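If you are new to this repository, start here. Below is one unmodified record pulled from the training split, so you can see the exact layout before writing a loader.
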Amino acid sequence: MASSIELRPSELEKGNKNSLNTPLNPYTDSSNPSTSPTSTKSPTWSNYLCFYYSGLSSDDPALKRRSQYVIYGHVIFITTSLLMLILTFTVIIPAIMQDLVNQSNLSLEMATITNPTNTSFDSAVLGKFSNVGSLSAKVKMNTLTVSWSGEGGGNMLKLSNSNSLTIKNNEVATISSDATVDDMTAFSNFNTYLLHHETAQWTIDGTADVTAFGVTAQVNFHKTVNLIGANNFTIPPLVQSTNITNGTSNQLYIASQVTMYSPSNVDLNLLNSTMYFDLIYNDVNIGIGYIPNYQMIQGAYTTKAYIVLSYSNNVEYQEICNVMSNYSCGIPVNATMKHFTLQPTLTWIKPALLSISMDTQLPGCTDKLVKEVIMFNKLVPETIPYEMVVYNPQPTNMTIVTITGSIYYMGVNIATVDNKNVNILVPAYTTITSGQLPANAVNSPEAISAYGTLVKNGKGYVNMYTKIIGKFGHFTANIVYNQFNVSLIVVPI
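And here is the target side for that same chain:
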């Protein structure tokens, strides 16, 4: 059996067209009668190429050269394709990703600080990416450095363990991270700057793993973002209500609702901390205030606040009495909140809080103390008996110890009062009638005429100008209490 197919030169020389034009089967040799039609041979590149170039012998040098060219071509094509794939996935697509990241813009919508400790906190940065075209990519931030270039600034924070997020053009995404204070001084200086200015800037540096087009590549991440500052809290806190809850010999306890305003888009959530501050009135420290579970959030935030008025000398006591006088008469009191501190202490925000000063206004009491005066038409001699219907709007007992002052009708002083040690107890949220008290009639012609008109009419409205020594709980205050248009009825005896 022949071991290979061979075109005989003699047939070529004779011009045997059949030999030249008859297709050869690379698996059998039909010219050899001893070769069985069913016999097969394992194909080789030489067999195929010989079959393809049917006019040439597999041992022909020209055929070998042509086969080598074909093999080289396939190798070059495959190699080039592989190189292009490698370049595409390792160079071109990552370069496109890097360029898109470089060209993109990041605007900070909100930064939230929660679960703070003295060296760390949880950070959530809500940002909007723009100028990224139609790219939709998944991004996993690696460790990032947050820096501030202002005076006393530096690399403030390290952000790690960030979540994966999807970036799309003009859509917001949240980067949640563990924040570690890297430079305590720089971060403290930044926080102080932020509270006193309209804007501030963060620079964020690091790397990110970006997945797009089915490829994940690490790219450099460098963005400068603008933050809105608190700008000295130009909208002052609004105290919406005040209630006297108790009192000791030298302390008066007040509960209130206060609305805090902040324009800053950096939210500080201190749910396990209490904010303390000094309360200043007429440049005198009259006590402290505190806000449990303090939060500084953008916009208006209403929370409970507590004030403890206390004194250690007569100057402080007198200013507290002035505050109580205005409050009882329904007159708002302008005061200043200063020297903010946080418990437990956070070193990185302590200097910033101490630098804050906020003007505020304590509202006056909206309820009138005296609901009605009942005057008895009986002069004994020159004394007019009267009673007061008194309401206590506070959640603590009130005791009226002394009342002195004057009663005016139609602009004329018709009587004076000097009731000492009366000790009228008015329980919390209760209305009581005082019982009869003496008023001294004024004997001037104008007073007698005005009083006569009042008796004739049987009722009217009077103005009361008094000084009251009262107790709220066990706290004693000297109050100047003026109340206008008090309903008065005359009861004949």
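Two things worth knowing about this chain: The first strand starts at residue 105 and ends at 114. The chain has four domains: 9-59, 106-229, 235-362, 370-492.
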